[in-house]
Structures are given as structure tokens and as C-alpha cells.
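A quick word before the example. In earlier lectures we treated sequence and structure as two separate objects. From today on, think of them as two lines of the same record. Here is DUF669 domain-containing protein written that way.
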Amino acid sequence: MGFIDLKEKTNDKSNLIPKGIYEMQISKVTGDASKGGHEYMKFDFLIRDDLDKVPELKDTNAKEHGRHYFANVWTAKDPNTGQDSGEYSQEDLANIADAIGLTQAQIDKYIKGKDDLMKACEGKFVRIYVSLGENEYQGEKRKQNSTFTNSWHPTKYPKQGAKPAADDPFQGTRGDANATELSDADIPF
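And the structure line, produced from the sequence above:
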């Protein structure tokens, strides 16, 4: 036997996370396209590990912290032809902007296109509902996680000690006027 024994590999194809509400940090966002040219933004989320003691997250963050979760936001299809329109849905873009705490003034000043939005997302904290369902692709049924931008919301738990970004969405960690500030009494650790 050599350095690696392939008989030892895991046969669990799922590697899925349980459905539920997670507090995550957007680690990275990149643009890509399918083989057919359908464009998308690929979000790499990291399940936060600093909220293990928060009671409402005991079945999500506390059990799955540190794991990556990937989600794609695709360009919309033209309602008349069913073909890729090449444009992102305004609803998807608005949901993403709201989840990371962008104001309309910041959008108008700093977000000139997809690349600016992707850059503004990186490092921000969000609250996301992740579902678990079954999908059929090329005759094979498989379980998969999914999320839609309408289930992305501002975090309830801004990172303690982080300085909120002032006006520039590309700097610092997202602060949120609607988020619940945590004190030592709120978290029993």
C-alpha cells in the first residue's frame, strides 16, 4: 500500500448541513458561468464559530460551526424566451444588498456593477435560512442544500469588537442598526 489508501475514503456523498437558520460570514464571492454560458455569483459562506452558546442557534451554528456553505446566484432568465438574460434579478440584488447592510446612498456611490457588489459582500455577516431538499438531475435523485436570496437577512449578532463600516461598504466589518447588540450578560460564555 502506498501513501494513500483509497479504501479509506468516505462514502458519504451528502456532506450536507441540516436545514435551519445560520449566522454566517461571507468569506468570498466570485463570478463564474456554466458550460452553456449562464452567469452566476458564487458565494462562499463560513458558518460562524463565535455563536455556539446562543440558544436559538444550538442546532445550527453550535453543531456546524466552521463549515463552508456555497450558494450560487444566477442571472435571470428572459420570461419570453426562457434563455439567460445576462442580467441579475433586481430582487436578488436588493436582497443581497439589504442582507449586508448597504444603504441606497452607499449603493449609488460605490456599487457600479457586479464586481463592486461582490467586493462589498466579502467579510460581511449575514443570517441565512438553508433548506434541505431533493433534486433530480439527469435521472439521478439526490439531496441538496439550497437557499434563496429572499431568505438572506442582516445578522442579529454583529461581531463583538468589530468596527462598523462608516459610509464605505468596502471597508471594515458590517455594522447594523437593526441588529441586536450583545453584552456579556446575553451570552453565557
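Notice the following. Residues 77 and 84 are 4 Å apart (CA to CA). We will return to this example when we discuss secondary structure assignment.
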